[in-house]
Amino acid sequence: MKNFALIFLLALAASPAAATTFFLAPASGGGNDSNSGTSASSPWLTPNHAVNCGDTITAAASTGYSASNFGAGKWGAVACPAGNNVAWLICATFDACKISASGQDGMHVSANFWGVQGWEVSTSSSGACFTASPSGGSTIHHIIFANNVANGCFSNGINTFNSGSASVDYITIVGNIIYDAAQGTANCYSGISIYQPAQSDSSAGTHIFVAGNFSYKNSDPSSCAGGAPTDGEGIIFDTFDGSQGGLSAYTAQAVAENNVLLANGGRGFEVFNNRSGSAHAPIYVVHNTLWGNSGDPNQNATYCGEVVVSLAFNTQVSNNLAVTNTADGCGHNPVYAYYVGGGDSTDSVHNTFGYSASGTNDGINNSTGFSYGTGNVFGTNPSLANGAAPGAPNCASTSNVPSCMAAVIADFAPAAAAAQGYGYQSPSPSQTTDALFPAWLCTANLPSGLITLSCGGASSSAPAPPTNVSVSVN
User: Fold this and answer.
1) CA nearest neighbour of 412 among 394, 425, 430, 399
2) Which of 181, 226, 263, 400 could form a disulfide with 218 if both were Cys (CB 3.0 to 4.6 A apart)?
3) Coil vs helix vs strand at 13
4) Where are the domains of the chain?
5) Is residue 14 over pLDDT 90?
Protein backbone atom coordinates (compact mmCIF):
# COMPACT_ATOMS: atom_id res chain seq x y z
CA MET A 1 0.00 0.00 0.00
CA LYS A 2 1.27 3.46 -0.83
CA ASN A 3 2.06 5.82 2.00
CA PHE A 4 -0.05 8.77 0.83
CA ALA A 5 0.90 10.91 3.83
CA LEU A 6 4.58 10.52 2.97
CA ILE A 7 3.93 11.29 -0.70
CA PHE A 8 2.03 14.45 0.31
CA LEU A 9 4.83 15.63 2.59
CA LEU A 10 7.48 15.02 -0.05
CA ALA A 11 5.43 16.92 -2.65
CA LEU A 12 4.94 19.77 -0.22
CA ALA A 13 8.66 19.94 0.48
CA ALA A 14 9.42 20.05 -3.25
CA SER A 15 6.99 22.93 -3.88
CA PRO A 16 8.42 26.45 -3.94
CA ALA A 17 7.82 28.50 -0.81
CA ALA A 18 4.96 30.98 -1.02
CA ALA A 19 6.23 34.46 -1.82
CA THR A 20 6.44 36.84 1.13
CA THR A 21 6.20 40.62 1.06
CA PHE A 22 8.61 42.50 3.31
CA PHE A 23 8.97 46.24 3.84
CA LEU A 24 11.86 48.69 3.95
CA ALA A 25 12.28 52.38 4.79
CA PRO A 26 15.07 54.84 5.52
CA ALA A 27 16.08 55.43 9.13
CA SER A 28 14.02 58.63 9.12
CA GLY A 29 10.97 56.52 8.24
CA GLY A 30 11.54 53.94 10.96
CA GLY A 31 13.77 51.54 9.04
CA ASN A 32 15.76 49.27 11.31
CA ASP A 33 17.20 45.83 10.65
CA SER A 34 16.05 44.71 14.09
CA ASN A 35 12.45 45.14 12.95
CA SER A 36 10.47 42.18 11.65
CA GLY A 37 10.18 43.70 8.17
CA THR A 38 6.78 42.10 7.77
CA SER A 39 4.72 45.28 7.85
CA ALA A 40 5.03 48.89 6.74
CA SER A 41 5.05 49.87 10.41
CA SER A 42 8.05 47.61 11.13
CA PRO A 43 10.32 48.06 8.09
CA TRP A 44 13.90 46.95 7.52
CA LEU A 45 16.67 49.44 6.85
CA THR A 46 18.68 47.34 4.36
CA PRO A 47 18.12 44.34 2.08
CA ASN A 48 20.66 42.39 4.14
CA HIS A 49 18.24 39.62 5.15
CA ALA A 50 17.79 35.99 4.13
CA VAL A 51 14.85 35.76 1.72
CA ASN A 52 13.59 33.52 -1.07
CA CYS A 53 13.28 33.96 -4.80
CA GLY A 54 9.85 35.43 -5.51
CA ASP A 55 9.84 37.46 -2.29
CA THR A 56 9.49 41.21 -2.55
CA ILE A 57 10.83 43.98 -0.34
CA THR A 58 8.64 47.04 -0.84
CA ALA A 59 10.49 50.27 -0.12
CA ALA A 60 8.55 53.29 1.11
CA ALA A 61 8.65 56.32 -1.19
CA SER A 62 11.33 58.65 0.21
CA THR A 63 14.24 60.86 -0.75
CA GLY A 64 15.98 60.00 2.52
CA TYR A 65 17.72 56.76 1.56
CA SER A 66 21.46 56.40 2.26
CA ALA A 67 23.78 54.65 -0.17
CA SER A 68 25.62 53.08 2.76
CA ASN A 69 22.62 50.81 3.32
CA PHE A 70 22.75 49.41 -0.23
CA GLY A 71 26.49 48.92 -0.69
CA ALA A 72 28.53 45.76 -1.23
CA GLY A 73 27.85 43.28 1.56
CA LYS A 74 24.41 44.72 2.33
CA TRP A 75 22.48 42.14 0.30
CA GLY A 76 21.22 39.01 2.02
CA ALA A 77 21.40 35.42 0.84
CA VAL A 78 18.52 34.51 -1.49
CA ALA A 79 17.39 30.89 -1.55
CA CYS A 80 16.57 29.99 -5.16
CA PRO A 81 16.64 26.22 -5.74
CA ALA A 82 15.30 26.47 -9.30
CA GLY A 83 17.74 29.24 -10.23
CA ASN A 84 15.17 31.07 -12.35
CA ASN A 85 13.93 34.00 -10.28
CA VAL A 86 15.04 36.84 -7.99
CA ALA A 87 14.02 38.52 -4.79
CA TRP A 88 12.87 42.02 -5.71
CA LEU A 89 13.66 45.31 -3.98
CA ILE A 90 10.82 47.48 -5.32
CA CYS A 91 9.99 51.11 -4.71
CA ALA A 92 6.35 51.40 -3.68
CA THR A 93 5.92 54.17 -6.28
CA PHE A 94 7.96 54.34 -9.48
CA ASP A 95 10.81 56.87 -9.24
CA ALA A 96 9.91 57.89 -5.69
CA CYS A 97 12.74 56.10 -3.83
CA LYS A 98 15.83 58.25 -4.29
CA ILE A 99 19.49 58.00 -3.34
CA SER A 100 21.96 60.87 -3.71
CA ALA A 101 25.37 59.34 -3.01
CA SER A 102 28.68 61.08 -2.50
CA GLY A 103 31.98 59.24 -2.73
CA GLN A 104 30.48 55.78 -3.30
CA ASP A 105 28.17 53.76 -5.52
CA GLY A 106 24.54 54.59 -5.08
CA MET A 107 23.49 50.93 -5.05
CA HIS A 108 25.94 48.00 -5.24
CA VAL A 109 24.38 44.54 -5.55
CA SER A 110 26.91 41.94 -4.41
CA ALA A 111 24.90 38.72 -4.02
CA ASN A 112 23.02 36.29 -6.27
CA PHE A 113 19.33 36.40 -7.25
CA TRP A 114 18.48 40.05 -6.62
CA GLY A 115 16.34 42.44 -8.64
CA VAL A 116 16.00 46.21 -8.22
CA GLN A 117 13.14 48.24 -9.69
CA GLY A 118 11.64 51.70 -9.46
CA TRP A 119 14.59 53.60 -7.91
CA GLU A 120 16.34 56.84 -8.91
CA VAL A 121 20.02 57.28 -8.05
CA SER A 122 22.59 60.02 -8.56
CA THR A 123 26.22 60.11 -7.44
CA SER A 124 28.96 62.69 -6.99
CA SER A 125 32.67 62.61 -6.11
CA SER A 126 32.92 58.94 -7.15
CA GLY A 127 30.79 55.89 -7.76
CA ALA A 128 28.36 54.42 -10.23
CA CYS A 129 24.64 54.89 -9.82
CA PHE A 130 23.88 51.13 -9.98
CA THR A 131 26.53 48.41 -9.76
CA ALA A 132 26.62 44.63 -9.72
CA SER A 133 29.95 43.14 -8.70
CA PRO A 134 31.11 40.48 -6.25
CA SER A 135 32.47 41.47 -2.86
CA GLY A 136 34.23 38.12 -2.43
CA GLY A 137 35.97 35.55 -4.59
CA SER A 138 32.92 34.01 -6.26
CA THR A 139 31.10 35.15 -9.40
CA ILE A 140 27.61 36.44 -8.70
CA HIS A 141 24.69 35.75 -11.02
CA HIS A 142 21.00 36.27 -11.79
CA ILE A 143 20.72 40.00 -11.14
CA ILE A 144 18.16 42.36 -12.65
CA PHE A 145 18.04 46.16 -12.82
CA ALA A 146 14.62 47.12 -14.22
CA ASN A 147 12.62 50.36 -14.44
CA ASN A 148 15.19 52.53 -12.66
CA VAL A 149 16.60 56.00 -13.33
CA ALA A 150 20.34 56.77 -13.18
CA ASN A 151 20.28 60.55 -13.26
CA GLY A 152 23.76 62.09 -13.09
CA CYS A 153 26.45 59.57 -12.21
CA PHE A 154 30.10 60.20 -11.43
CA SER A 155 31.21 56.92 -12.99
CA ASN A 156 29.01 54.51 -14.98
CA GLY A 157 25.24 54.72 -14.89
CA ILE A 158 24.72 50.95 -14.58
CA ASN A 159 27.73 48.67 -14.61
CA THR A 160 29.20 45.30 -13.82
CA PHE A 161 32.88 44.52 -13.34
CA ASN A 162 35.18 41.81 -12.09
CA SER A 163 37.00 41.43 -8.78
CA GLY A 164 40.02 39.31 -9.63
CA SER A 165 38.77 36.22 -11.45
CA ALA A 166 35.25 36.63 -10.03
CA SER A 167 32.71 38.73 -11.89
CA VAL A 168 29.04 38.74 -12.94
CA ASP A 169 26.88 36.40 -15.04
CA TYR A 170 23.18 36.26 -15.95
CA ILE A 171 22.86 40.05 -15.70
CA THR A 172 19.66 41.63 -17.01
CA ILE A 173 19.35 45.40 -17.47
CA VAL A 174 15.91 46.25 -18.86
CA GLY A 175 13.82 49.40 -19.15
CA ASN A 176 16.09 51.88 -17.36
CA ILE A 177 17.03 55.51 -18.00
CA ILE A 178 20.71 56.44 -17.89
CA TYR A 179 21.42 60.14 -18.23
CA ASP A 180 24.57 62.25 -17.74
CA ALA A 181 26.83 59.48 -16.47
CA ALA A 182 30.62 59.15 -16.95
CA GLN A 183 31.43 62.42 -15.16
CA GLY A 184 34.48 61.16 -13.24
CA THR A 185 38.18 61.35 -14.13
CA ALA A 186 39.72 58.33 -12.36
CA ASN A 187 38.71 56.15 -15.32
CA CYS A 188 36.82 56.72 -18.55
CA TYR A 189 33.22 55.65 -17.97
CA SER A 190 29.99 55.07 -19.94
CA GLY A 191 26.21 54.89 -19.62
CA ILE A 192 25.84 51.09 -19.34
CA SER A 193 29.05 49.09 -19.05
CA ILE A 194 29.40 45.29 -18.89
CA TYR A 195 33.10 44.77 -18.15
CA GLN A 196 34.89 41.42 -18.11
CA PRO A 197 32.04 39.10 -17.11
CA ALA A 198 32.67 35.52 -15.95
CA GLN A 199 30.51 32.49 -16.53
CA SER A 200 28.78 30.80 -13.62
CA ASP A 201 27.78 27.85 -15.83
CA SER A 202 28.03 26.66 -19.43
CA SER A 203 24.30 26.60 -20.20
CA ALA A 204 23.21 27.67 -23.69
CA GLY A 205 21.00 30.68 -24.33
CA THR A 206 21.31 34.35 -23.45
CA HIS A 207 23.19 35.10 -20.24
CA ILE A 208 23.61 38.89 -20.62
CA PHE A 209 20.49 40.79 -21.68
CA VAL A 210 20.43 44.60 -22.03
CA ALA A 211 17.09 45.70 -23.48
CA GLY A 212 14.59 48.54 -23.55
CA ASN A 213 16.94 51.09 -21.98
CA PHE A 214 17.30 54.82 -22.75
CA SER A 215 20.95 55.85 -22.41
CA TYR A 216 21.74 59.39 -23.48
CA LYS A 217 24.03 62.40 -23.05
CA ASN A 218 26.70 60.38 -21.25
CA SER A 219 30.11 61.87 -21.93
CA ASP A 220 33.59 61.71 -20.42
CA PRO A 221 35.25 64.89 -19.14
CA SER A 222 38.05 66.45 -21.18
CA SER A 223 40.58 64.17 -19.46
CA CYS A 224 40.09 60.81 -17.74
CA ALA A 225 42.29 57.87 -16.72
CA GLY A 226 45.26 60.24 -17.04
CA GLY A 227 44.73 61.09 -20.70
CA ALA A 228 42.30 61.94 -23.46
CA PRO A 229 38.81 60.43 -23.04
CA THR A 230 38.07 57.11 -24.72
CA ASP A 231 34.54 56.16 -23.66
CA GLY A 232 31.19 57.75 -22.89
CA GLU A 233 29.30 55.02 -24.76
CA GLY A 234 25.58 54.59 -24.42
CA ILE A 235 26.21 50.86 -23.94
CA ILE A 236 29.55 49.03 -24.06
CA PHE A 237 30.19 45.29 -23.92
CA ASP A 238 33.79 45.58 -22.78
CA THR A 239 36.55 42.95 -22.89
CA PHE A 240 34.54 39.75 -22.88
CA ASP A 241 37.75 37.98 -23.93
CA GLY A 242 39.33 38.79 -20.53
CA SER A 243 42.36 40.34 -22.16
CA GLN A 244 42.59 43.35 -19.84
CA GLY A 245 42.57 41.44 -16.58
CA GLY A 246 43.85 37.94 -17.23
CA LEU A 247 40.38 36.38 -16.96
CA SER A 248 39.21 33.38 -18.90
CA ALA A 249 37.30 34.31 -22.04
CA TYR A 250 33.57 34.73 -21.53
CA THR A 251 31.85 32.67 -24.22
CA ALA A 252 28.16 32.82 -23.20
CA GLN A 253 25.59 34.65 -25.33
CA ALA A 254 25.01 38.39 -24.85
CA VAL A 255 22.27 40.57 -26.35
CA ALA A 256 21.69 44.34 -26.69
CA GLU A 257 18.12 44.69 -27.95
CA ASN A 258 15.60 47.48 -28.39
CA ASN A 259 17.56 50.24 -26.66
CA VAL A 260 17.52 53.97 -27.47
CA LEU A 261 21.02 55.47 -27.43
CA LEU A 262 21.28 59.20 -28.11
CA ALA A 263 23.80 62.05 -28.07
CA ASN A 264 26.49 60.20 -26.14
CA GLY A 265 30.07 61.42 -26.20
CA GLY A 266 31.32 57.99 -27.24
CA ARG A 267 29.83 55.36 -29.51
CA GLY A 268 26.13 54.65 -29.16
CA PHE A 269 26.82 50.93 -28.84
CA GLU A 270 30.25 49.33 -28.84
CA VAL A 271 31.53 45.81 -28.42
CA PHE A 272 35.23 46.03 -27.57
CA ASN A 273 37.74 43.18 -27.15
CA ASN A 274 36.04 39.94 -28.05
CA ARG A 275 38.72 38.31 -30.18
CA SER A 276 41.56 36.98 -27.98
CA GLY A 277 41.67 33.23 -27.51
CA SER A 278 40.01 30.47 -29.50
CA ALA A 279 36.36 30.89 -28.43
CA HIS A 280 34.31 34.08 -28.37
CA ALA A 281 30.98 35.16 -26.94
CA PRO A 282 28.16 35.28 -29.50
CA ILE A 283 26.92 38.88 -29.30
CA TYR A 284 23.68 40.11 -30.87
CA VAL A 285 22.93 43.81 -31.44
CA VAL A 286 19.31 44.01 -32.55
CA HIS A 287 16.54 46.62 -32.99
CA ASN A 288 18.33 49.52 -31.30
CA THR A 289 17.78 53.18 -32.23
CA LEU A 290 20.97 55.28 -32.27
CA TRP A 291 21.36 58.96 -33.10
CA GLY A 292 23.95 61.69 -32.66
CA ASN A 293 26.59 59.65 -30.82
CA SER A 294 30.41 59.88 -30.96
CA GLY A 295 30.19 63.63 -30.39
CA ASP A 296 32.97 64.11 -27.82
CA PRO A 297 35.39 66.70 -29.33
CA ASN A 298 38.16 65.67 -26.90
CA GLN A 299 38.47 62.13 -28.24
CA ASN A 300 40.68 61.05 -31.11
CA ALA A 301 39.42 57.67 -32.30
CA THR A 302 39.21 56.41 -35.88
CA TYR A 303 36.80 53.59 -34.92
CA CYS A 304 33.99 56.09 -34.71
CA GLY A 305 30.28 55.58 -35.22
CA GLU A 306 26.81 54.92 -33.92
CA VAL A 307 27.39 51.13 -33.76
CA VAL A 308 31.03 50.05 -33.52
CA VAL A 309 32.41 46.52 -33.51
CA SER A 310 35.97 47.03 -32.29
CA LEU A 311 38.53 44.23 -31.99
CA ALA A 312 35.67 41.77 -31.74
CA PHE A 313 34.57 38.56 -33.42
CA ASN A 314 31.26 36.66 -33.49
CA THR A 315 29.10 39.82 -33.36
CA GLN A 316 25.78 39.94 -35.24
CA VAL A 317 24.21 43.36 -35.96
CA SER A 318 20.71 43.54 -37.46
CA ASN A 319 17.44 45.50 -37.53
CA ASN A 320 18.96 48.64 -35.97
CA LEU A 321 18.25 52.25 -36.94
CA ALA A 322 21.47 54.30 -36.80
CA VAL A 323 21.64 57.97 -37.80
CA THR A 324 24.61 60.32 -37.52
CA ASN A 325 24.03 64.02 -36.94
CA THR A 326 27.46 65.31 -37.98
CA ALA A 327 30.18 64.48 -40.50
CA ASP A 328 32.95 64.26 -37.90
CA GLY A 329 33.03 62.69 -34.45
CA CYS A 330 35.41 61.27 -31.85
CA GLY A 331 37.34 64.51 -32.18
CA HIS A 332 37.87 65.21 -35.87
CA ASN A 333 37.37 61.86 -37.59
CA PRO A 334 34.60 60.67 -39.90
CA VAL A 335 31.65 59.30 -37.94
CA TYR A 336 29.85 56.30 -39.44
CA ALA A 337 26.43 54.81 -38.87
CA TYR A 338 28.18 51.38 -38.62
CA TYR A 339 31.88 50.66 -38.25
CA VAL A 340 33.74 47.37 -37.98
CA GLY A 341 37.41 47.59 -37.03
CA GLY A 342 39.53 44.61 -36.10
CA GLY A 343 36.78 42.13 -36.91
CA ASP A 344 36.62 39.11 -39.20
CA SER A 345 34.27 36.87 -41.16
CA THR A 346 32.44 35.77 -37.98
CA ASP A 347 30.99 39.28 -37.68
CA SER A 348 27.83 40.21 -39.56
CA VAL A 349 26.03 43.49 -40.24
CA HIS A 350 22.89 42.75 -42.24
CA ASN A 351 19.22 43.77 -42.56
CA THR A 352 19.89 47.03 -40.79
CA PHE A 353 19.25 50.72 -41.51
CA GLY A 354 21.93 53.42 -41.52
CA TYR A 355 21.98 57.04 -42.58
CA SER A 356 24.69 59.67 -42.63
CA ALA A 357 24.10 62.92 -44.48
CA SER A 358 27.84 62.98 -45.23
CA GLY A 359 27.69 59.54 -46.86
CA THR A 360 29.67 57.73 -44.17
CA ASN A 361 27.09 55.03 -43.68
CA ASP A 362 29.44 52.07 -43.26
CA GLY A 363 33.14 51.73 -42.53
CA ILE A 364 35.63 48.84 -42.32
CA ASN A 365 39.22 48.67 -41.14
CA ASN A 366 41.58 45.74 -40.58
CA SER A 367 38.78 43.14 -40.71
CA THR A 368 39.91 40.27 -42.91
CA GLY A 369 36.98 38.33 -44.35
CA PHE A 370 34.32 40.78 -43.21
CA SER A 371 31.95 42.52 -45.59
CA TYR A 372 28.58 44.13 -45.06
CA GLY A 373 25.79 41.63 -45.58
CA THR A 374 22.53 41.61 -47.49
CA GLY A 375 19.37 43.54 -46.73
CA ASN A 376 21.05 46.68 -45.44
CA VAL A 377 19.38 50.01 -46.21
CA PHE A 378 22.14 52.63 -46.27
CA GLY A 379 21.90 56.24 -47.40
CA THR A 380 18.14 56.78 -47.08
CA ASN A 381 17.01 59.48 -44.67
CA PRO A 382 14.63 57.86 -42.14
CA SER A 383 12.95 61.24 -41.50
CA LEU A 384 12.94 61.10 -37.73
CA ALA A 385 10.05 63.00 -36.22
CA ASN A 386 12.28 65.32 -34.17
CA GLY A 387 15.93 64.28 -33.88
CA ALA A 388 17.29 66.39 -31.01
CA ALA A 389 19.11 65.59 -27.78
CA PRO A 390 16.58 65.13 -24.95
CA GLY A 391 16.84 66.97 -21.66
CA ALA A 392 17.17 65.52 -18.17
CA PRO A 393 14.52 62.92 -17.28
CA ASN A 394 11.59 64.02 -15.16
CA CYS A 395 9.52 60.96 -14.35
CA ALA A 396 7.22 62.44 -11.71
CA SER A 397 3.63 61.27 -12.14
CA THR A 398 4.54 58.66 -14.76
CA SER A 399 4.03 54.95 -14.30
CA ASN A 400 7.29 53.55 -15.67
CA VAL A 401 10.30 54.30 -17.85
CA PRO A 402 8.54 53.95 -21.26
CA SER A 403 5.81 56.34 -20.14
CA CYS A 404 8.44 58.79 -18.86
CA MET A 405 10.24 58.54 -22.22
CA ALA A 406 7.08 58.70 -24.37
CA ALA A 407 8.07 62.02 -25.98
CA VAL A 408 11.56 60.70 -26.78
CA ILE A 409 10.10 57.55 -28.34
CA ALA A 410 7.85 59.70 -30.51
CA ASP A 411 10.67 62.08 -31.48
CA PHE A 412 12.85 59.25 -32.78
CA ALA A 413 10.19 57.33 -34.66
CA PRO A 414 11.02 57.23 -38.40
CA ALA A 415 8.44 58.53 -40.87
CA ALA A 416 10.10 57.16 -44.02
CA ALA A 417 8.46 53.96 -45.22
CA ALA A 418 11.83 52.28 -45.82
CA ALA A 419 12.77 52.73 -42.15
CA GLN A 420 9.63 51.23 -40.67
CA GLY A 421 10.31 48.16 -38.55
CA TYR A 422 13.90 49.11 -37.72
CA GLY A 423 15.20 50.31 -34.38
CA TYR A 424 13.29 50.56 -31.11
CA GLN A 425 9.86 48.95 -31.02
CA SER A 426 7.42 49.98 -28.29
CA PRO A 427 6.70 47.11 -25.89
CA SER A 428 3.69 45.00 -26.73
CA PRO A 429 1.40 43.40 -24.14
CA SER A 430 1.18 40.38 -26.45
CA GLN A 431 4.00 37.92 -26.28
CA THR A 432 6.13 37.29 -29.35
CA THR A 433 8.65 34.67 -30.36
CA ASP A 434 12.21 35.90 -29.79
CA ALA A 435 14.95 33.30 -29.72
CA LEU A 436 17.25 35.83 -28.04
CA PHE A 437 15.00 36.21 -24.99
CA PRO A 438 16.45 34.60 -21.83
CA ALA A 439 14.12 31.79 -20.77
CA TRP A 440 14.78 32.29 -17.06
CA LEU A 441 13.18 35.74 -17.15
CA CYS A 442 9.81 34.12 -17.85
CA THR A 443 9.58 33.17 -14.16
CA ALA A 444 11.32 36.25 -12.74
CA ASN A 445 8.25 38.51 -12.39
CA LEU A 446 9.60 41.33 -14.54
CA PRO A 447 7.58 44.55 -14.26
CA SER A 448 5.16 44.84 -17.15
CA GLY A 449 5.42 47.31 -20.00
CA LEU A 450 9.22 47.61 -20.19
CA ILE A 451 9.92 45.07 -22.93
CA THR A 452 7.94 42.61 -24.99
CA LEU A 453 8.09 39.21 -23.35
CA SER A 454 8.81 36.06 -25.31
CA CYS A 455 7.79 33.32 -22.94
CA GLY A 456 5.87 31.18 -25.36
CA GLY A 457 8.87 30.76 -27.63
CA ALA A 458 11.90 31.52 -25.45
CA SER A 459 14.78 29.34 -26.54
CA SER A 460 17.78 27.97 -24.69
CA SER A 461 19.71 27.32 -27.88
CA ALA A 462 21.79 29.74 -29.88
CA PRO A 463 19.57 31.29 -32.59
CA ALA A 464 20.25 32.11 -36.17
CA PRO A 465 20.79 35.85 -36.73
CA PRO A 466 17.46 37.70 -36.77
CA THR A 467 16.28 39.08 -40.08
CA ASN A 468 13.87 41.76 -41.18
CA VAL A 469 11.78 40.19 -43.89
CA SER A 470 10.00 43.41 -44.85
CA VAL A 471 13.00 45.00 -46.61
CA SER A 472 15.63 43.50 -48.85
CA VAL A 473 17.56 46.47 -50.22
CA ASN A 474 21.37 46.67 -50.28
Assistant:
1) 425
2) 181
3) helix
4) 18-118, 138-467
5) no
